[in-house]
Design a protein that fits this description.
Radius of gyration: 14 Å
CATH topology: M1 Pyruvate Kinase, Domain 3
Order of helices and strands: EEEEEHEEEEEEE
Number of domains: 1
Oligomer: single chain
Shape: globular
């Protein structure tokens, strides 16, 4: 785990999974430029503009025998070094120099992710089934560029100070 939380990987695709890694991206209120979703009913929109997930959870899932990799489940930002089970809707993430996200909801896993999981058990990353193991959606409060390796700061609801986990 890094000494401070960092943006480990940035992931985009023109629709579907896995998303591919890019070194930098512009984060707009509609999501990452160069990223798209095929199903606009279930994905995207201002409250689901960005999807985030934990590198440490991906590594733990790999150790359980799942063939998951960063970007495989459709997250846009893979973050290393955060105590993931402390995150919840309402938390804010500041990434790099300018990007400011507010976590809005846990992401329900999609059956299209079944191929990354032993026995097709894509619900392994369901907040309802395995609390603390879910991806999260975020709205963009401040647009800007993100770069792999950027510092990530977590702000808890009702707190003016950031928490380094």
């Amino acid at each position: 785990m890094p000494h401070h939380p960092i943006l480990y990987q940035i992931n985009v695709s023109l629709g579907g999974v896995p998303k591919r890694s890019v070194p930098t991206a512009w984060v707009s209120c509609n999501g990452l430029v160069g990223d798209a979703q095929r199903n606009h009913v279930l994905h995207g929109g201002p409250d689901r503009a960005v999807c985030v997930f934990s590198l440490e959870l991906i590594q733990a899932l790999q150790s359980e025998g799942h063939e998951i990799t960063p970007g495989a489940t459709g997250e846009n930002l893979t973050i290393a070094g955060l105590q993931w089970n402390a995150l919840r809707p309402g938390c804010h993430l500041h990434i790099g120099e300018t990007v400011h996200l507010e976590l809005t909801a846990y992401c329900d896993p999609c059956r299209k992710n079944a191929r990354w999981f032993r026995n097709g058990d894509y619900r392994r990353i369901s907040q309802q089934v395995h609390p603390g193991w879910s991806r999260l959606y975020a709205r963009v409060l401040r647009e800007g560029y993100v770069h792999q390796g950027d510092c990530v700061r977590l702000f808890m609801p009702g707190s003016d100070s950031h928490v380094i986990c």
